[in-house]
């Protein structure tokens, strides 16, 4: 019985490996940056509340529990500069403030304003304090400026939690946080504090998107993206339901006897991400990234989803007539769908409310003073706020990316989309700490690189992209890492290598693969390396690759005595296994890669046996299993 179980386990593991390998697209190239990435250790027991970029390039501010730290990646060996946060509440010389005997605020929110100014919020377990901090000053202080006085007053008795999404809007701060009943919702602090009505739904917000209207400031709104626990206990019901909600920035709540200090403009709509034809959909919202446009309605939201575990493999072995052992392998999938504020607003403007006929008198637009809304309308608002129609991706399309990778965060860059060759670059963090660099161009999406920045498996807590310098900053609980995602030399030193990368950041300038400009050679759509020949570029021979092949799209062939050798390891392309060294195996072995008709020699070895007289021509490559391993390592490309 135990032997059967063991054999079943081995068989299942093998089939699971094959299933995983064939079901998830691999990155074309894998870069192991554990040694080359710049990094700083993060000391202490608490992860940073957030990171922001300073005005100077390669400089990052990390919000630690009690203070700020400034990390300069141009000098990674220097000790980070510690910046104290002297809260105004703790300053006994200020007669306008109530001084506490134990003034110990933990920083839980940090946001970049302009230049070197930060907006900070912290809590002492009893309430919250917020302030502005100007880092350009010689001795910066955490001051309560005139702009945030009303924020400070309204948030004073409120306790925010670590990692809360927030959006700072001039004289108001819009954020979501936990209340005493552990229900997540949107709160606004400032001139008019407004919060949610009481409900019994479990909600988890993943992001907030402000939408400001230059043409009509009254219609400024904030969109919140969240997942809600499904109350349907059915066996085939999804555990989570994805939603987008909308509130007006100028909402003041209702009058004293109905919805006072509660949103009167909040409406909710379900998000759909999937392929109706294949009946595949994704229900758990994980993260969102926003690409703002000049016109508010064109702003795009890239939403990262997961679906719940799906059955990929089931095997049963019967050990007797009435006893069988079954094993199921279950893997979830991730997907990215894109929505526009225009499409979201259309649902909130035109859809009927769920289960209801159209409600006359209920305005969908933001009003000048919500406290004057008629009581009948307020009762309808309190009763139901969910739309009948669902919000679907732009152009009613499906996911731009879905696979069996477990992604945890998303970041998007379209900063160079003003070129004629339009594209968008997505960065997705995996649950093991690696980063996928993904290119989206029209209907095409492909993973061009995987970065492995950490020495050990780590969960990425936050990551921030600085497009002008093409630097990506990651934090785990123990490290702050800088990745150079614009390092084009990693792809090789030939024009064909550069073009095959399909990296829109990179192009061939005639001699090197360098950051892309309009006059360089690159073909993101087709990876047509023939443009190198047509442009007159001369390709120089190259025998040893400067980077590991990883799991790219190339096909590897070992050539011995001008004949192809088919004994490459199945799970490790590029590695040649010679089970037994014999005279027939002597001679030259070359590893040649072929990708889209582009060939190159990656490795070139000459093998010889020792002669009987003991004259050493080369070291014997096969002495049992240990030497076999050494041989595999030697004959790699």
Automatic annotation (TrEMBL):
Show the GO cellular component annotation of the record: extracellular space; plasma membrane
The superkingdom of the source organism is: Eukaryota
Q: Which protein are we looking at?
A: Semaphorin-7A
A Gene Ontology annotation in the biological process aspect, one of them, is:
axon guidance
Location relative to the cell: Membrane
Q: Which UniProt keywords apply?
A: Disulfide bond, Glycoprotein, Membrane, Signal
Cleavable signal peptide: 1-21
Q: Where is the Sema domain?
A: 28-485
Q: What is its main location?
A: membrane
Q: Name one GO molecular function term.
A: chemorepellent activity
Q: Which family does it belong to?
A: Belongs to the semaphorin family.
């Amino acid at each position: 019985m135990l032997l059967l179980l063991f054999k079943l386990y081995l068989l299942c593991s093998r089939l699971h490996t094959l299933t995983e390998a064939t079901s998830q697209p691999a990155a074309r190239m894998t870069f192991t940056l554990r040694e080359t990435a710049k990094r700083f250790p993060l000391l202490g027991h608490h992860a940073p509340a957030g990171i922001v970029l300073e005005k100077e390039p390669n400089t990052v501010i990390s919000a630690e529990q009690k203070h700020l730290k400034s990390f300069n990646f141009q000098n990674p060996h220097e000790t980070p500069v510690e910046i104290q946060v002297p809260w105004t509440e703790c300053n006994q010389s200020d007669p306008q403030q109530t001084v506490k005997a134990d003034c110990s605020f933990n920083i839980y929110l940090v946001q970049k304003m302009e230049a070197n100014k930060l907006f900070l919020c912290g809590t002492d377990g009893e309430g919250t304090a917020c302030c502005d901090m100007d880092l350009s000053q010689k001795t910066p202080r955490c001051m309560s400026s005139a702009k945030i006085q009303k924020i400070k007053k309204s948030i004073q008795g409120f306790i925010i939690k670590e990692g809360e999404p927030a959006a700072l809007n001039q004289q108001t701060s819009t954020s979501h946080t936990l209340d005493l009943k552990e229900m997540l919702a949107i709160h606004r602090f400032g001139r008019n504090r407004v919060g949610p009505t009481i409900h019994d739904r479990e909600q988890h917000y993943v992001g907030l998107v402000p939408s400001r209207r230059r043409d009509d400031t009254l219609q400024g709104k904030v969109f919140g993206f969240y997942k809600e626990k499904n109350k349907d206990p059915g066996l085939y019901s999804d555990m989570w339901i994805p939603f987008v909600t909308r509130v007006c920035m100028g909402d003041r709540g209702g009058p004293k006897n109905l919805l006072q200090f509660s949103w009167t403009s909040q409406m909710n709509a379900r998000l759909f991400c999937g392929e109706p034809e294949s009946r595949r959909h994704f229900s758990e919202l994980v993260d969102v990234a926003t690409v703002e446009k000049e016109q508010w309605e064109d702003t795009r939201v890239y939403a990262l989803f997961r679906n719940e575990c799906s059955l990929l493999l089931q095997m049963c072995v019967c050990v007797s007539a009435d006893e069988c052992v079954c094993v199921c392998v279950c893997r979830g999938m991730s997907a990215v769908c894109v929505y526009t504020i225009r499409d979201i607003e259309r649902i909130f403007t035109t859809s009927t409310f769920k289960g209801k006929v159209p409600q006359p008198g209920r305005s969908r637009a933001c009003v000048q003073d919500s406290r004057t809304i008629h009581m009948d309308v307020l009762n309808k608002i309190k009763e139901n706020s969910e739309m009948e129609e669902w919000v679907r991706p732009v152009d009613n399309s499906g996911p731009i990316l879905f696979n069996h990778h477990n992604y945890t965060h998303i970041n998007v860059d379209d900063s160079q989309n003003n070129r004629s060759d339009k594209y968008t670059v997505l960065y997705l963090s995996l649950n093991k700490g690696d980063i996928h660099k993904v290119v989206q161009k029209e209907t095409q999406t492909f993973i061009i690189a995987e970065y492995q920045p950490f020495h050990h498996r780590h969960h990425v807590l936050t990551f921030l992209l600085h497009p002008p310098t093409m630097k990506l900053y990651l934090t785990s609980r123990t490290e702050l890492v800088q990745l150079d995602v614009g390092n084009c030399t990693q792809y090789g030193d030939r024009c064909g290598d550069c073009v095959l990368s399909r990296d829109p950041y990179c192009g061939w300038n005639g001699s090197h693969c360098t950051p892309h400009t309009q006059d360089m050679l690159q073909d993101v759509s087709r990876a047509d390396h023939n443009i190198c020949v047509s442009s007159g570029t001369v390709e120089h021979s190259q025998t040893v690759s400067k980077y590991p092949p990883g799991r790219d799209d190339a096909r590897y062939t070992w050539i011995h005595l001008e004949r192809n050798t088919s004994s490459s390891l199945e799970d490790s392309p590029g590695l040649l296994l010679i089970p037994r060294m014999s005279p027939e195996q002597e001679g030259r072995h070359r590893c040649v890669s072929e990708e889209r008709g582009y060939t190159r020699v990656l490795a070139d070895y000459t093998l010889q046996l020792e002669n009987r007289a003991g004259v050493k021509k080369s070291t014997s490559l096969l002495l049992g299993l240990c030497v076999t391993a050494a041989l595999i390592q030697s004959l790699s490309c």
